[in-house]
Amino acid sequence: MTTTQPTTGHEPTTGPGPLAGTQPAARPMPMERACPFSAPEEFRTLREEEPVTPVTFPDGAKGWLVSRYADVRAVLTDPRFGANRRLLRTGDPAQDGAPLPPPPPGMFIMMDPPEHTRFRRLLTGQFTVRRMQRLAPAVERIVAEHLDAMAAAEGPVDLLRVFALPIPSLVICELLGVPYADREQFQQNAGRLLRIDASQEEALQAHTAMNQHIHQLAVAKRAHPTDDILSGLVQSEQLTDEEVAGVGALLLLAGHETTANMIALGTMCLLRNPGQLAALRADPALMDGAIEELLRYLTIVQYGLRRVALEDVELGGHRIEAGATVVASLTSGNRDATHFSGDPDALDVSRPYSPHLAFGHGVHQCIGQQLARVEMKAALSALIERFPTLRLAVPADQVPMRDDMLIYGVHKLPVTW
């Protein structure tokens, strides 16, 4: 197995660092935030002193953490780091190196090419920039309807429940062909899947329930197709019903959880940065850039993307052994001052654009990112225009944050106006 650098065009750190046998002791995975919008303070030190470092994850497993922007991109594009967990080293000598079961059918985010490519190719045309832009008027109508209902409630309201969550849920249900009436069921299962402390049994039960529900829809659409993504996947005859169910469940989960939390957390962040909010109200043309800045600044995939070394790889002066877990920290990479101008720890809606990592990078970069941008722009633009006196209805330190979830955000956001 080779130890050459990745041929990605984004070379990882190559400065001095201990090789195998002299590596520093594993440190706990950075998790504590000084404020709801800050990255853990340890990341700053790690980027400067130990950008590739051994860590202990919350479940006690060992692995590596990559914290610099360039290294994160390199790991996410290097085929020697796989999304499939085969050869994963668990820390249990009886299990280390033992092949794990294959990913569930359709769960393409846990697959490597060519298996991943087969699924991705079928979906790419469904989420093009042009198609998502054509969807914008429908999203704007949904936003306006929910703002009308919110105004009628006369506050205070939970912005997450009445606005941020329904909008992406309605849109992804319509795109997939999932009845919106089923939202309570799939939202509950999504919440169980994304809990950091969920047991394997709980996660399996939630995953199975979502898949069974989508599988029933897929079977029905085989007989009576409609104009939606699930029907298109079924009619393509390139996937089994089980694979269609897995793809559908994945898109349903990702299509509402992430955007809902970006809308709610983004709103809270702007309310806590009144100067930035005032700049947006004064110049709505800043909104496109503000969306990119909020995505970078908040980075709601808070614990990074996990990869597994498929062979021995030298990275940052360390030998990453085959089977080792490597977490590429999107949060830390998006605060790297060597890539972003100005102070990357500050929110700046007029910051010159530079590619961020909020949607990941490489072949697994989020396929629904254009949809997320359309939804965030429609929601935040209309919200701050419709409610110029919008404010938190409770002290900021009383807003319950999703520190316990893989996708960061708020559990609720009480607001008034």
Q: For the residues shown, what is the average pLDDT?
A: 89
Helix content: 40-55%
Shape: globular
Uncertain stretches: 1-21, 87-96
Query: Helical element count?
Result: 14
User: How much strand content do the residues show?
Assistant: 5-15%
Largest sheet: 6 strands, mixed
- C-alpha termini separation: 61 Å
Secondary-structure-based class equals alpha+beta
Q: How many β strands by DSSP? A: 11
Q: Could you explain how this protein is built, in words?
A:
The protein has helices spanning 42-49, 69-77, 115-124, 129-153, 159-164, 166-176, 183-194, 200-223, 229-236, 241-271, 274-282, 287-298, 330-333, 369-386, and strands at 27-28, 52-56, 62-66, 81-82, 157-158, 305-309, 313-315, 318-320, 325-328, 391-392, 414-416. It has 417 residues and is of the alpha+beta class. The protein has a 6-stranded mixed sheet with strand order 1-2-3-9-6-4, covered by helices on one side. It is globular and about 60 Å long.
Spell out the blueprint of helices and strands.
Elements: E1 27-28, H1 42-49, E2 52-56, E3 62-66, H2 69-77, E4 81-82, H3 115-124, H4 129-153, E5 157-158, H5 159-164, H6 166-176, H7 183-194, H8 200-223, H9 229-236, H10 241-271, H11 274-282, H12 287-298, E6 305-309, E7 313-315, E8 318-320, E9 325-328, H13 330-333, H14 369-386, E10 391-392, E11 414-416
Parallel strand pairs: 1-2, 3-9
Antiparallel strand pairs: 2-3, 4-6, 5-11, 6-9, 7-8, 10-11
Helix pairs in contact: 4-6, 4-14, 6-10, 7-8, 8-9, 8-10, 9-10, 10-14, 12-14
